[in-house]
Amino acid sequence: MKTLWITNVGSHAWLMNRPDSDIDIFTAFIVPSRDILSGRNHGGVSHCSGNTINRVLLFGINLLNGNGYEFKPVTNQTPDDVKALLEEFDKSTATSKLPEKTNPEPFREYLLDLRMRELNETL
Hints:
Elements: E1 2-8, E2 25-30, H1 33-38, H2 50-64, H3 79-95, H4 105-122
Antiparallel strand pairs: 1-2
Helix pairs in contact: 2-3
């Protein structure tokens, strides 16, 4: 089993964590197709296809390059395709004009507004 990348996907990634927040980690692995098809357990690892990994990478590349987001099918991906997209993702990360750290306040204000509207609707 080969690790492609490890990333924080929870509240810490968005700077929305509180003192009692847990840490949510996602790890992308490459495992043999035979293991996936036979249901072999890799220590609680859930499996996704190269298509899924490439779709996630393409989503990130588009955002980092300022092209917005796009959901489109990705099919017939090979390990070489994953490797090429990882390299493209690294280039996009290095040249992105997005800030290294985001300002969480607009998102917090949005969530507060959303929660307040929901509360008002139930009263």
